């Protein structure tokens, strides 16, 4: 087990109270972000995001499947996340737990709710055959704020993705067709520590977070929210956090996508 | 959110079940309904109903999950297979896991967990019938169960959703409104302190509308809190 010590937590808290951070960042600064695309050669789109020392890889695969009965003329989006044992001594093998499930579902909602994917165009034969867009997120190294890193990797991989062809019931993976997102959702988590708002908490800071809100914005609309952590927030704090997330997602959009 | 444009969800200010925009469905609450559990509760909002049981504080296993300074609160949220239109396959679902996690976030802040180092308080919530708002109803039952178990709390957690149908903010969506509406915003709050302890949202909106919908949901939570208190008073 890797435990963050009480001393580390206390020093992170002391710094934040003074408006500073252990690694010298401002409270509202992201760590350095590095993005590589096309890292998984077999995937139809992929991206590796390094957010400080957190490292996440996302791959997009297209497949053919039967549509859901209530949306017979729409393609399907599936998002899955794995917190594999290589990323942290505290992660175990096995089916996704609560944290991995939350990451997958929050990333999924961000993409789904703003109708980012042209799902109608992904219908091949109504009620029979539609494209499935499968986004798999693998966390390789955990140094905090995995949700923002995962959302960024997922969206970047989708932006890079090219569709395979389809003919005579076969998926033709050597063909590349255009796949265009209709909207680009960007996700940012705002944490509240003591009375300060903090962006991109690292693994030590995450241990002293009371509450945080993960916010997804398109260019002009708010499309998903998830309050996380065991504390409470007032309505006015929440509204301020949504607004701060808006500024930061705009900044991410300009610098990373 | 769904987008069935043909459905009339709002006609002359009335909703499909005759409610106005700011009306909750009919509420019903009970405490102490199970014998074996340390505490239990029942809550119903219209056709959505849930039962909750609390066990603990008790020793937490596996031991490496124990916290030396404080206890932890664990939640299980489950939809009964017969609670929905098409039978739900029993067993854990991704949705259930996520709701379990946010429910822990919602309830933990209301409990004096620092009084129970190394222990766990387990809250088991079963949805018996689902007609939207299941996480809210489950939390309302769970909070009654915690109080019924005599666990020291800073206040009851009360939960209710607001949403947007036909471009209009409304309180407490029922099934058809949830399926065909534009925004779903479940909230849980500590009605004593006013702190919001659960908030999720999906749909397309902006900050101004969020402000309005949160106000609605907060009003709803306060009414839910009254009902929860009544049920608890009856058991004493």
Task: Write a structural description.
The complex is a heterodimer of chains A (257) and B (236). Chain A is of the alpha+beta class and 257 residues long. Chain A has a single domain, classed as Ribosomal Protein S5, domain 2, CATH 3.30.230. Helices cover 27% and strands 33% of the residues of chain A. Chain A starts with 5 loop residues before the first helix and ends with a helix. Chain B has one domain (21-234): Ribosomal Protein S5, domain 2 (2-Layer Sandwich). In chain B, the strands form three sheets. In chain B, strands 3-4-5-7-6 form a five-stranded mixed beta sheet. Chain B has 236 residues and is of the alpha+beta class. Chain B contains four helices and eleven strands. In chain B, α2 (134-148) packs parallel to α4 (207-234). In chain B, a hairpin with a 2-residue loop joins β1 and β2 (14-15). Chain B starts with 9 loop residues before the first strand and ends with a helix. The chains are: A alpha+beta (257), B alpha+beta (236). Chains A and B meet through α2, β12 and α5 of A and α1, β10, β11 and α4 of B. β12 of chain A pairs antiparallel with β11 of chain B, so a sheet runs across the interface.
Detail the topology: elements first, then pairings.
The complex is a heterodimer of chains A (257) and B (236).
Chain A: H1 6-17, E1 33-37, E2 45-51, E3 54-65, E4 76-82, H2 98-113, E5 123-125, E6 129-141, H3 146-160, E7 163-167, E8 170-177, E9 186-193, E10 196-199, H4 203-206, E11 211-217, E12 222-228, H5 235-256
Parallel strand pairs in A: 4-6
Antiparallel strand pairs in A: 1-2, 2-3, 3-6, 5-6, 7-8, 9-10, 9-11, 11-12
Helix pairs in contact in A: 2-3
Chain B: E1 10-11, E2 14-15, E3 27-31, E4 39-45, E5 48-59, E6 72-79, H1 94-108, E7 119-129, H2 134-148, E8 157-165, E9 168-171, H3 175-180, E10 183-190, E11 196-205, H4 207-234
Parallel strand pairs in B: 6-7
Antiparallel strand pairs in B: 1-2, 3-4, 4-5, 5-7, 8-9, 8-10, 10-11
Helix pairs in contact in B: 1-2, 2-4
